[in-house]
Amino acid sequence: MSSRLFLLLSILPVVAKAWLLPVTPTYTTRRHDTTLSMAAGPCWTNEQGRELLERFGSIFEPEEDKKYALESLLLSPSQDRILDACRDEIKKASSSRLARRRWPVRLPSSRATKGCYGRILAEMDSGRLSVELNDGMSPVKLNNGDEDEEEELMNKKRSNVLNLLIKLSTYSKGVWTLEGEMIEDSGSDDFGATYGKSLQEVSADRR
């Protein structure tokens, strides 16, 4: 028997055993997967938008994981599409009763969570609210340097989503509690009332 054949027969049981053993996921593996998904094409943006909203709005997601996801988003060439997907997810949820109102307790519902995002962003979009970031960080303002009025408005809305995610990346109490604190600080009894409403409905409410 040749030495090469002997060596091959010797290592086959070891290789087979390695294939059969379960692979334990590690934090490093999760980080790598997150980075890869953030760099994926447009077909992944809806899924990424949903995942970001759930992770950043949760009280269970570790801060380190949220910070890494935020870093991946900031470096992603698909950043604009991912932020737009976040807004689309929030808008789609606005037709749900779970999202249209603020509940007195935190509900284990993705639609209720998206409603919290929606009301905060409605206030930010109207200019009635600005999010204070940690460590004296200035709010991010996205622009391409040569934008028309429509693109300027889109970049403002993207910036609002991004700044809210930055805030939540180091906020451990979740988006439901953050909304409650913002309502209390604002003293407003119609906080986020324009969430889910058309421009015509908003105009009618103001008459």
UniProtKB/TrEMBL annotation:
Entry keywords, A to Z: Signal
Signal found in the keyword field: yes
Signal peptide region: 1-18
Region Disordered: start-end pairs: 185-207
Protein name per the record: DUF4378 domain-containing protein
